[in-house]
Amino acid sequence: MPERTKEFGKFGAQGIKGHEAVARQLDRLAGFIATPVTQRRGLMARLHYLTRTDSAKAAARRAGLTVTDRTLKAWLTGRRNPTAKNLERIDTAYRTVRRANVSRHLLARLNRRGRGTRVEFHPLNQSQVPRPLQRVVDYRTLNVRRWDRIVDAWAADDGRALDDAWINDVVVDLGSQWGEYEYVTNIGFAA
After folding, report:
1. Over the range 76-111, which residues count as b (16 or more CB within 10 Å of their CB) and which as e?
2. pLDDT of 109-150, one tens digit each?
3. What gap in Å lies between CA 46 and CA 160, rounded to an integer?
4. For 167, which DSSP code?
5. pTM of the predicted model, to two decimals?
6. Residues 64-68: contacts with CB within 8 Å, 24+ apart?
7. Phi, psi at residue 127, to the nearest 5°?
């Protein structure tokens, strides 16, 4: 098995790590609130999501939103506004709790009772690479049947574990060309 790419972009190739593209697509499928947390509507939607039940409050506290109930009530009623640091904590807690809530359902849809999900690999962009240094990298598809480690790493927001799961569980199934798909422009799949 070849080593991983060490000097990506040295000759002008453009793209992102495959696991980052997978995380983006899983985030799209999770259906996060689109309005930014800096706007009142986005803030209220996130706070309502994090405080609607006692278990949601407990999950928010585990995710790093450690303010008092009094402060939360003041934010919800609009008597006080969170600081920029607290806005970031609210958004991080919301994303963490949302990922945990959605991951089980998303995993079942991606695994489809062992049938898996078709994944599209869009190769890296070589338009800025000098012609003699360009290589042929084709668009590929692959049916992924084991999503457990990938979704668990995404839900935990663990980039290293997601990279390991993506490369070792999926990309190596492309055969001897797997190294050409470590960096991509996009990874596409639906659930």
Report:
1. eeeeeebeeebbebbbebbbbbbbebbbeebbeebb
2. 999 999 999 999 999 999 999 999 888 889 999 999 999 999
3. 27
4. H
5. 0.88
6. 64/89, 64/92, 64/93, 64/96, 65/89, 65/90, 65/93
7. -65, -25
